[in-house]
Amino acid sequence: MPLPPEEVREKRRGRKREERSRITPNRKQVAVTVVVVTLVAAGVLLYLSPLSRINFAGSIGSGGQADVQLPTGFTIDVFAEGLNGPRFIAFGPDGALYVAERGTGRIVALPDADSDGRADAILPFATGLDQPHSLAYHEGAWYVGVPSGVVRLDDQDGDGAAEAQTAIIDDLPTRVGHTTRTVAFLPDGRMLLSVGSSCNVCTESDPRRAAIVVYDDATGANEQIFATGLRNAVGLTFQPDSGALWVTNNGRDLMGDDVPPETLYQVNEGDHFGWPACHAGTIIDPEFGAEGACDGVVQPALTWQAHSAPLGLVFYDGDAFPEAYRGDLFIALHGSWNRPQMVGYEVLRVPFDDGLPSGPAEVFATGWLTDGRVSGRPVGLAVGPDGALYVSDDRGGFIYRITYGQ
């Protein structure tokens, strides 16, 4: 008995669907194929391009406690752990170490009331901040560098927590290029703010980029340009005796594994340091430079390995280290991400004499990079009231304490 017409048509449709499924891949198969082809093509392009120097191993993932090596007689211990992206650090008038904890958007205090070399607790001082990077105590308040500018924190009742947050500077671009902001105060009370470039190398439309900006006081009045041509001067510090301003500067990428070198500068008001046309005082940029581009630019006081990413720096003004170390400069190297053979991930010592470097930078603390494995990335430095040198590690989440003869 013949089948009804509708059943015949349904059987025919079923056979056609079966035939199509044998010769046509489903959407999931197509998506997987596209992804694989895209990744392979991207890998080929990366290998053939200058970007093949990139090595992200040191800048992603979590770290761990480092096995740090120091000169004979020095010891390193963990002062605090479990922090999320600790950046710059500074001691407050209460003797506690304050930390800009970028990963959680807060400032925390680390007291050591029993002086055992270990923080008693991690105490929130201010929360709800946007990626705090730096902090400076000035005339009864903390000033914090955030991507948009500077926030003042006031502990009005003295209970160890800031009740008031006031935006002092709030008009800097926040999501373009280098976004860390370092705030500091000149001996005369004027406020400085370093602002990195918006790019690897380019001509800036905003004169505040790749520069250090100065304000008349802590209110942010009368914004002026203090110094220019600094691609990314993350670290600012003052020499204790002279009050001179010293900065670390991060050089541009994609000119080679060893060019241009990283630089240390002494900065005076009105100085120009050459970027984007000139690097490290003598190297003309292949894209933005021309003959004479380095004429008249300030020369670096010191140079060292390119792409090692110098950040925090501090003069040793304590009395617990040997006499030979007193007055010397220490520099934290965050470490490379743009070099196949990783470099940095250590703390340098620069000997000083009569206000200037008296020799090349030398490795003081190393061990955050071992056999290609990165356990931590040094960022901030501070000398404590106890004369110890404190180091923040934003990958491992540690604060280390370096002492001598203990």
Structure in words:
The chain is mostly beta strands. It has a domain at 48-117 and 231-404: TolB, C-terminal domain (Neuraminidase, 6 Propeller). Helices cover 10% and strands 34% of the residues. It has helices spanning 5-23, 27-48, and strands at residues 74-80, 86-91, 97-101, 106-110, 123-126, 134-138, 141-146, 149-154, 164-169, 181-185, 191-195, 211-215, 224-228, 236-238, 245-249, 262-267, 278-279, 283-284, 302-304, 310-315, 329-333, 346-350, 352-353, 356-357, 362-366, 369-370, 373-374, 378-383, 389-393, 398-404. The strands form nine sheets. It has a four-stranded antiparallel β-sheet with strand order 1-30-29-28, with no helix packed on it. Strand 10 and strand 11 (191-195) form a beta hairpin. Mean pLDDT is 89; it is low at 16-25 and 27-52.
